[in-house]
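Newbie here. two chains, one complex. Structure please?
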Amino acid sequence: MTSTPRLELRGISHAFFGMPVNCDISLRVEPGEVLGLVGENGAGKSTLMNIVGGVLTPDEGRMLIDGDPYAPKSTGEARARGIAHVHQELNLFSQLSVIDNVFLTAYPRRWGVFTDRRKARRDTADALAQLELPFSPSTIVEQLSPGHRQMLEIVKGTLGSPGLIILDEPTTSLTSRETHLLFALIERLTAQGTSFIYVSHILDDVKKLSDRIAVMRDSALIDVRAEADLPVRELITLMVGRPLDSLYPDRAGHTPADVQAAPALRLDDVSATGLVHRATLTVDRGEVVGIFGLMGAGRTELARVIAGLDAADSGRIEVAGTDVTRLSPRARIAAGLAFVTEDRRGEGLLMEFPVVANAALPSLARWSGGVLAPLRRRSLRARVQAVTEALRLKATDLTRSPVQALSGGNQQKVVLAKWLLTEPELLILDEPTRGVDVGAQYEVYRTALERADAGTGILVISSELPELLGIADRIVVMRLGRIVAEYPRAQFDARIILGAAFGERPDEVAAGEAASIQIQGGV
Amino acid sequence: MSRVKDLALQNVPVILLVVVFLAFAAVDPRFLSGDTITLILRQSAYVGILAVGMTLVLMTAGIDLAVGSLLYLTAVVVGQIVHTVAMPIFAVPILAVLIGAMFGAFNGFAVSVLKIIPFIVTLAMLTAFRGLGYGVSDSREVNYPDAITALGAQSVLGIPLPIAVFALVVLLAHVTVTRTPFGRQLLATGEDRQAAARAGVRVGRIQFAVYVISGALVGLASFIAVIQQFSGTVTPAAGKGIEFDAIAAAVLGGTSLFGGRGSVFPGTVVGTLLIQLVNTGLGFIRVDLYLTQMVQAGIILLAVLIDSLRTGRLEKLRRTVITSGRQDDDPPPKPAAPAQTQEAGR
């Protein structure tokens, strides 16, 4: 193309504490183009986007916007030059209203000092309408669903018609309807000349949206090609650096465990007001049970009730034969329960602490004679090292660098390692692959399935149906806080399961809308 | 029913204020008079002004422990200046505000530029400001001229001067918090400083500004205290421990000690009135002085307890998936409902 690119990078390099994260990257984004950017966690995508978005200053290299030099020192400056950066993690203030979040630093003013609330409200309402968002501009963000919060981040990005919008994993919390609306918006904006850099692990989405796709691996830009020249299989090979035969490890299916042992989990008519309604479920030892359902179907709520984080009002919960219904989360852990939360930043990790400290937390007692007895640090470290190596965790220093410095996929491995160290009888995984790249996804599931083969019962919650179809022995569907359907592996059918999640009865599915619902993710 | 309950939970401080007032009235019906109310308002004024400044600081997830000492220091310094330099009476409060702001700027500098945590900075200043005040006054009482002290009995449009000043401060602060970009950025900074910085908020400036404002309000409060509570005489113990009343008033009014949440009006105003109501009321029904402090502490604990219960309950309500009316075992609704299902938060 002979036109001036919207954004041009020339030889961008950046290092953290001497570790290179971006090596000599040169890239162009044309006006009105969607450039897909893919790569494993830790490949350097986020760093590169932070450089473009003004969060980081590159050590070397230059950037140009529409042919003019561009060296932003802050996000504000980047914004002023027409670069909008929608981060993967949400940057919302939950106590403030939607309007406040949208206009925090760019409030329209009256008489120079006061906020022009009428104009702000109107502009916000217009922007919300663009994405058909059903909430009012004055809603306090705290009250929005995760999907709506993510949409709000995107609304913030599109405001003030920037020339280039960076979307970093924008669909992780979106429903398929919301995803469609987002894609339609991207199409409208590109038609008006707006450029996009679309970063995502959902390769189908990247393929669908992008004009060209850039692949990063090990801090370097490996290849940039037109979308049509990059079939998914090749894309994965480029990303991982080796051909990956399947996205999920083989699940041969479990052989029913000896009947002597109590099941890993038994729920008998468990209810918790407003959260879970009359759930009955058994997870055998060595069995992998998937829970599928829409956003807000009560899956995480059920997991929290099992883990003892929310109280059950009635019914009975047994973990590995122990009645834990009235026990504290701590006692349930002792009974053999492990819960890998969906919110690894908020609930799963101490972000300032290194890998070893995080991983050892629930099993500290094993490495010491008592609460005040000194820790056997060497054997603890050796054990953590063994587990993290098995997970192929990439970290510079297990005992010193904070987990904050790790990529999303590696952080998830730390959370998993932490619970594997407790050698659980029941392992609950809540959205274990959210924002995690294909390579790490594989490792997470391979490890979980190995645990299952060793006799642990696994309960996996996921919004990615193909994932559950790949690894589960049985899928349970939840809707409105109750278990509405259950399918053994032999009866796995994506359309029927989706239909059940949407509240259709099996006979309606064939003719129903389920067929038109796009399955997100997977290959 | 649960709506009424929620509404009640949302307005704990106001309800508590009314209940405590009625309780005192029940013990002694004479309590129920316009004079008592005016007295409470009058005595609330200076602590209230401090509490407003404290509220702004708490909103940014900071704290200002030095307000009591700074109140004393400002009162002493202004008192000395008034004795040595002739000036019109209206210039005295302005001088107090400027001196307060100047020392506040010192706190602000330490917090925003030197990046020392607010608790430590202001804890150090708690001692330093009082020490400085002792130095300036030679640890002696400082007396203000009668002409200034007499202002305490003045009224503006029929409203006693201290109450009028308090009301004006509340109005300005309320408008600043709710109607200016600064106010919104203040709350954002308190909720998540890093996220605010990423969003382009100049976090350092906000923090600096908030300590300057707090200092300025301490200056103003020192003037009001001189003409009201102190009756023109500043003793070396003046303002000691008053920072705790200011913090308690803000927290009672629903301002979070962890930042990002709170309100000047009704929040802090109600908190201030509640504390003063208890003080005045217990005096009125002649409760033992030692017992008074225990009751005060009890009220604060109670309010904070109710507040944490409320937060817990509201939290749980937000995570509700099953909407009421669907508790029975009828078949799940038709697919037309997904939009609503997805809206239900987690």
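Moderator note: Chain B has 15 helices and four strands. Chain B has a mean pLDDT of 85. Thread marked as resolved.
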